[in-house]
C-alpha cells in the first residue's frame, strides 16, 4: 500500500506585550496585549502537484479595563481587535478576517451576604482543567467567550463553579441557540500533592440536542514524577432519534531529570470514541464541546487529528530550560481513528513531529518559534498525489 507523505513547515513567531498597569483615584486599572503571529504552510492539501504554499501574518490587540466599585464589586471590559496584515474591512466573520469586538464585559460581586460566594454576570472566558472540554482558546486570534452567569464557592479546601452560559459563536455575532449548564469542582488538598476535579456539563440547543458530559481529572506529582489523568463520559440526546453513548480519556506522565536544564521527558495517550454507525443506532462519537485543543494533539492543527473525538493518539516528548530565558519542546505524535471511516484504507491517520522554542526577552515581551511536520497515512481524508 502506497504511503503518502506531507511535509508541513509552520513557523510561528509570537510577541506578547502587557501594558504596565496604572491606577487612578477611582481604583481603575488598565492593561493590554499586542500579539503578532506569522505562519507558513506547505502542501496543506496533501497534493505536491498543486502549488498551495501559503503564508500570512495576523495580529491581536486587547485593551482591558478593570474598575473596583467597592471592595467586593468590580467590572471588567476587554476590547479586542484582530486582523490579517494586508486585508481591509471590519466585518466580524471568520478567524482570518478583521474583527473589532467586545471580548469580555462582566460584573463580579464577591462575598455575597458575607459568604465565600461570588457571582459573575456577562461575557466572560471559561477555562477548566487542561481545557480539553471548556477553554478560552487563546491560540485563536478571536479566542472564545461565553455570555451568562457563574456562581463560585471557594475556600481553602474546595472551589466550585456553577454556570449557565449561552454560547457565543466563534465566527459570528449571533446566538446559535446553544447553552452550557454545569458545575466544576476542584479539590486541591484532599490528597497531598494532587488536585482532583469533578464535573457535570449539560449542552442543549433549541432543537433536539440535550446531553451530559461528566468526568474526573487528577493532576499531581510524586518527587520528580508528574502525571495527569482525565476520563469523561457522555449520555443523552444527540438528535430526536439517537442517543449519546460516548467516552474519552487522556493520560500524561513525565519525569524531570535532576539537571540544571530541568529536562523533562514525558509520554501521553489520548482516546476519544468514534461512532459505530454500522452496528448501532446510538451516537458513540465523543463530543469535544468547546476546548482549547492546540497543543493537545500537536501544534500543526491538522483537521481530523486535532479533536478529542474518533481518535487514538500517543506521544513522546521532551522539554528543557536552556537558561532562564529560553526553553525548547520536542514531541512525536502518532494518530489513528478509533472507528475506521474508510474500511479500504484502515485507521492510520498519520504522524507528526513538533519543535517549539520560547524566548523571554523581559517580563512584558516574549518570542515563540514553532515548526511542525505532519506525515499523513492512508486513512487521512483528502490526500492527493504524493
- Overall geometry: globular
Helix content: under 10%
Number of helices: 0
Proportion of beta-strand residues? over 45%
Radius of gyration: 22 Å
Report the strand count: 19
State the distance separating the first and last CA atoms: 13 Å
Structural class: mainly beta
Integer average pLDDT: 87
Unreliable stretches covering 5 or more consecutive residues: 1-25, 90-96
Report on this model:
The protein has 386 residues and is an all-beta fold. Helix content is 0%, strand content 53%. The chain is built from no helices and 19 strands. The chain has a 19-stranded antiparallel sheet that branches. A hairpin with a 6-residue loop joins strand 10 and strand 11. It starts with 14 loop residues before the first strand and ends in a 10-residue tail after the last strand.
Key terms:
386 residues; single chain
Précis, in short:
Helix content is 0%, strand content 53%. With 386 residues, it is mostly beta strands.
Q: Secondary-structure map with pairings?
A:
Layout: E1 15-18, E2 22-23, E3 28-41, E4 54-68, E5 73-84, E6 99-109, E7 117-124, E8 146-154, E9 159-168, E10 175-187, E11 194-204, E12 210-222, E13 225-237, E14 243-256, E15 264-272, E16 311-321, E17 326-336, E18 348-360, E19 366-376
Antiparallel strand pairs: 1-3, 2-3, 3-4, 4-5, 5-6, 6-7, 7-8, 8-9, 9-10, 10-11, 11-12, 12-13, 13-14, 14-15, 15-16, 16-17, 17-18, 18-19
Amino acid at each position: 500500500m502506497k504511503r503518502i507523505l506531507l511535509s508541513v513547515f509552520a513557523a510561528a513567531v509570537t510577541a506578547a506585550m502587557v501594558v504596565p498597569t496604572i491606577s487612578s483615584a477611582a481604583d481603575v486599572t488598565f492593561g493590554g496585549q499586542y500579539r503578532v503571529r506569522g505562519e507558513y504552510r506547505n502542501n496543506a492539501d496533501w497534493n505536491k502537484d498543486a502549488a498551495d504554499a501559503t503564508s500570512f501574518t495576523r495580529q491581536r490587540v486587547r485593551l482591558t479595563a478593570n474598575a473596583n466599585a467597592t471592595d467586593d464589586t468590580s467590572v471588567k471590559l476587554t476590547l479586542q481587535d484582530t486582523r490579517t496584515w494586508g486585508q481591509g474591512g471590519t466585518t466580524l466573520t471568520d478567524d482570518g478576517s478583521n474583527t473589532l469586538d467586545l471580548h469580555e464585559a462582566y460584573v463580579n460581586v464577591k462575598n455575597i451576604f458575607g459568604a465565600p460566594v461570588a457571582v459573575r454576570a456577562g461575557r466572560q472566558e471559561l477555562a477548566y482543567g487542561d481545557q480539553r472540554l471548556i477553554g478560552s482558546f487563546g491560540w485563536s486570534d478571536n479566542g472564545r467567550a461565553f455570555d451568562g452567569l457563574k456562581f463560585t464557592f471557594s475556600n481553602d479546601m474546595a472551589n466550585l463553579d456553577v454556570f449557565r452560559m449561552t454560547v457565543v459563536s466563534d465566527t459570528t455575532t449571533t446566538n446559535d441557540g446553544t447553552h452550557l449548564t454545569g458545575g466544576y469542582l476542584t479539590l486541591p488538598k484532599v490528597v497531598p500533592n494532587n488536585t482532583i476535579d469533578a464535573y457535570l456539563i449539560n449542552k442543549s440547543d433549541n432543537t433536539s440536542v440535550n446531553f451530559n458530559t461528566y468526568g474526573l481529572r487528577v493532576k499531581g506529582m510524586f518527587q520528580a514524577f508528574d502525571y495527569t489523568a482525565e476520563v469523561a463520559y457522555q449520555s443523552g440526546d444527540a438528535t430526536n432519534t439517537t442517543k449519546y453513548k460516548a467516552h474519552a480519556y487522556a493520560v500524561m506522565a513525565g519525569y524531570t531529570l535532576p539537571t540544571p536544564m530541568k529536562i523533562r521527558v514525558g509520554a501521553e495517550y489520548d482516546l476519544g470514541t468514534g461512532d459505530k454507525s454500522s452496528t448501532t443506532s446510538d451516537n458513540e462519537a465523543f463530543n469535544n464541546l468547546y476546548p482549547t485543543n492546540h497543543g493537545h494533539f500537536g501544534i500543526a492543527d491538522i483537521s481530523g487529528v486535532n479533536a478529542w473525538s474518533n481518535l487514538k493518539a500517543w506521544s513522546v516528548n521532551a522539554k528543557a530550560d536552556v537558561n532562564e530565558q529560553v526553553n525548547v519542546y520536542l514531541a512525536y505524535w502518532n494518530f489513528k481513528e478509533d472507528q475506521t471511516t474508510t474500511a479500504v484504507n484502515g485507521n492510520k491517520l498519520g504522524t507528526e513531529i513538533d519543535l517549539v522554542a520560547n524566548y523571554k526577552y523581559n517580563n512584558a515581551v516574549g518570542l515563540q518559534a514553532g515548526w511542525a511536520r505532519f506525515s499523513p497515512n492512508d486513512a487521512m481524508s483528502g490526500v492527493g498525489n504524493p
